[in-house]
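Study this one:
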Amino acid sequence: MSEKSPKLRAELDGIPTYKPGKPAAAGGAVAYKLSSNENPYPPLTGVLETAVAAAGNFNRYPDMTCAALVNELAERFGVPAEHIATGTGSVGVAQSLIQSTAGPGDEVIYAWRSFEAYPIITQISGATSVRVPLTDGDVHDLDAMAEAITERTRLIFVCNPNNPTGTAVRRAELERFLDRVPSDVLVVLDEAYREFVRDTDVPDGIELYRSRPNVAVLRTFSKAYGLAGLRVGFAVAHEPVAAALRKTAVPFGVSQLAQDAAVASLRAEDELLGRVGALVCERKRVHDALLAQGWTVPDTQANFVWMRLGERTADFAAACEKAGVVVRPFAGEGLRITIGETEANDIFLHAAEAFFKEL
């Protein structure tokens, strides 16, 4: 009798694999990791102690409702607690959003290149990805995205600022776009890097959501707050959407360590803003230095810079690694370089200058 493998869903065939940023080599030549958009600072004051205290009870299940965190977020953003849903990082909430809205025969629209999890979580749900190319300036082409909407469209991601290009869409164009989207299509403003935005023309998605029931906003504690390893993110959405997210979330997905650390981080916001301000200053220094070297680099509102090198992408990534920093290449397209410690940024800039001279 021949043995057969268990039957799996056909939607999983050919699914792309998420590629995490390459780590720095332990004890090797690579001293710094600039490949994952992590915060280079240690936990904010009191956060580690809070997490350690919570660890003493990890024989118990966490609060499945994340009540303390939800209440803290509701007060912080001035929204009803019922409009908040938590998850394992903003990507976990994004997956729940698709599961709540789209299945086989439905379409999910997003810019490309954008966050590489979008095609993965779309395909897992059985829905069809509709990728709309960025403009020549590596910005969302919102007009083209609006034109791509069909009767099968269920959800649209707008990553703002966009990962991996760092570019952001501004208020007037985003509001025009939202006005064109049918009211029964959910628009998700993915704002994982919101804290790094300094362009006052880039809107706060939470302000847009207030008057638009079909707008949801994603945020995370992984970037500015420095809790990437604890996996906690959240959505702000009107009650029908938020309720659906709670239904589709993995039960007990956010650990008590993550919940308590997130609350402590929110309460240390003055220190957080100081750290973010320092990273923004470093971002400007790195961006300006690259322009001075002769590179063409788009304006960035995130904690990274984007360099479109096409076929030279792999060569430049290798040159950076040889110099002592690991960056994030996207084969045949370009590289995303996280703003890290000053020493790491200096190594990267020296590698960039040397590489440019050889072009």
